[in-house]
Amino acid sequence: MTAAEIKFIKKLHQKKYRKEEQKYFVEGRKLYEEALKNCPDLIESVYYTKSEDQPENQKNSELISEKEMSRISALKNPSPFLVLLKMSPLNLTNSNRSLFLEDIKDPGNMGTIIRSADWFGIEKIYVSSECVDLYNPKVIQATMGSFFRVNFEETTATELASQSIPLYGATLDGESIHTIEFPDEVCLVIGNESKGIQENTAELLTRKIFIPGKGKAESLNASVAAGIVLFAMNR
Amino acid sequence: MTAAEIKFIKKLHQKKYRKEEQKYFVEGRKLYEEALKNCPDLIESVYYTKSEDQPENQKNSELISEKEMSRISALKNPSPFLVLLKMSPLNLTNSNRSLFLEDIKDPGNMGTIIRSADWFGIEKIYVSSECVDLYNPKVIQATMGSFFRVNFEETTATELASQSIPLYGATLDGESIHTIEFPDEVCLVIGNESKGIQENTAELLTRKIFIPGKGKAESLNASVAAGIVLFAMNR
Q1: How far apart are CA A59 and CA B141, in angstroms?
Q2: Which residues does chain B have within 8 Å of residue A212's beta carbon, measured at their own beta carbons?
Q3: How far apart are CA B30 and CA A205, in angstroms?
Q4: I need a surface site. Which of A83, A164, A168, A169 has the fewest CB within 10 A?
Q5: Does the beta-carbon distance from B215 to A178 stay under 8 Å?
Q6: Which domains does chain B have, with CATH numbers?
Q7: pLDDT tens digits along A80-131
Q8: How far is CA A58 from CA A62, A147, B88, in A?
Q9: CA angle at B121 for the pair B115 and B123, rounded to the nearest 5°
Q10: Considering the entire predicted model, what is its pTM?
Q11: Above 0.95 for ipTM, yes or no?
Q12: CB contact under 8 A, A223 and B219
């Protein structure tokens, strides 16, 4: 591994350079296997630390030392695999159902929502510009591979509303989700962890939905709320 | 703040000493307010860094320096409040519905599940001995105050089954949750993040339930699955 390669991957720890280079990396055998299964053409190179792990028929794979791996890894305990990929939309059928995530800041929440979306067959996720970067290694890790089965697009609620896509938003003052029927074409809006959906966005919603509770908690975690709405949409 | 007090709270960063002393701490104004609302008698002392924050009518409250706070805090960015509490069961009405968490390891998942339980009115959570410590500061932070509205008890699935409590478990091979009716008395079993419910425990389940998906994800995040089952139980 050359000093220039090490420097290049270390730069990709920062969002700015990921965007500039249109490249990112993922770590761990599981994510490598998922990338291989879902988007092999986007893999640029694979670094691994154990000779017995050498990937078969993989162009640009390179055995590196554990010391080198710890220099390029974003993990406290580096895994034996690091995969460099190029950013590019995936080849997916367009379903009529999508998510719009507004200002989701926590990488764990973001990754978990992507994983739930994949579980419930949503292939398109719109994100606001204030969301945590999708290519943040913590986001990708939390998706457990679902990252490679969903397409992303940065947009605004105004733009979505102008396309006449019905927007259903999870709020604290909507109709009970138990009685709502979801149309075939719908975009679910999930708001920020602490502030919920922005006022401007709330005015654009076709319907506000609410998850009724019984206890005294003020709200649900954003990724739990998203999971419940996705579940209800699939009843 | 005396050196002995600083040393005492620093010791409480470790599970071992929390257990030995039967004391723990929480940080942040929000958690202090929740403790005040839900279990004022369990508050032993309150440390705060800004004189304008002095709590009214609070015994044992002490203004300390930011330097002292950073020594006793478990947070990267210490908050202006740290509250010392004693461990003790809360005075709650016993509902017939409960959760059994088996080997939940991630503090964020544990805290999020407690928050969802509170949202859906569950006041009793059983935990296996292999779960992350409930008094771990990251767990408490993730509950967003719900920690003070739920009682906990360490137990085993065998013990619960011997009390004839119907155990419903979220598995990958159960009946679809869409058609399941939940009895008035039921304990929901949520398994470990990566291994799911243990085989021995699965044999004790009254009913296995499954959350049907559409996509290619292998599973849902444990706290999302718990949230969905709690939601379905409240339809």
Answers
A1: 45
A2: 234
A3: 30
A4: A164
A5: no
A6: 3-86 (3.30.1330.30), 97-233 (3.40.1280.10)
A7: 999 999 999 888 876 789 999 999 999 999 999 999 999 999 999 999 999 9
A8: 10, 21, 58
A9: 80
A10: 0.93
A11: no
A12: no
